[in-house]
Write a sequence for this structure.
């Protein structure tokens, strides 16, 4: 019949929808960055929709996605479906103002960055890693402040331990701009 078969993610990409599902790591980040760049090159004015259902993951992989989303000329909408935690929450708030959404029963979570893997070695090596994680915490706190308007003091207090929010609480915090309503069925 001359039709081309698509897998579901290719079909979604054709509709300018990108899925950030699961752990944020280098392979996922490279795929999402490539999809963002491809869609921006196809049409620099049309909106890209990023759907997030992620427990977070690598800060460096997440920053690759975040920086790419923020540098694109086209509008980027984000929607939390299910769960946005840790760096998933940073990506959720990285959407353009007015285009950051959540489904009503989604959960949003923030915390300070964690050290991945065991840190060992000499005291000076441990000190280097400690300074790096404190720097990372400051960078992420500034990103959260930029997107939410919350004070750095509040952000540091809220992210000291796990901080869970409902969609409505994320709206009040400034992480999302809208809680989508369910269709009456």
């Amino acid at each position: 019949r001359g039709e081309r078969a698509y897998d579901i993610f290719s079909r979604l990409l054709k509709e300018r929808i990108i899925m950030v599902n699961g752990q944020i790591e280098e392979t996922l980040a490279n795929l999402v960055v490539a999809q963002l760049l491809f869609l921006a090159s196809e049409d620099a004015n049309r909106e890209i929709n990023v759907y997030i259902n992620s427990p977070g993951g690598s800060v460096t992989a997440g920053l690759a996605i975040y920086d790419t989303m923020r540098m694109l000329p086209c509008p980027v909408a984000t929607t939390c479906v299910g769960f946005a935690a840790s760096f998933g929450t940073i990506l959720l708030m990285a959407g353009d103002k007015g285009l950051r959404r959540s489904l009503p029963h989604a959960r949003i979570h923030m915390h300070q960055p964690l050290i991945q893997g065991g840190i060992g070695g000499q005291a000076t090596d441990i000190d280097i890693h400690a300074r790096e994680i404190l720097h990372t915490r400051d960078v992420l706190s500034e990103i959260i402040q930029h997107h939410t308007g919350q004070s750095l003091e509040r952000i540091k207090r809220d992210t000291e331990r796990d901080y869970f929010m409902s969609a409505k609480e994320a709206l009040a915090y400034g992480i999302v701009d809208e809680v989508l309503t369910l269709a009456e069925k």
The mean pLDDT is 94. The radius of gyration is 18 Å.
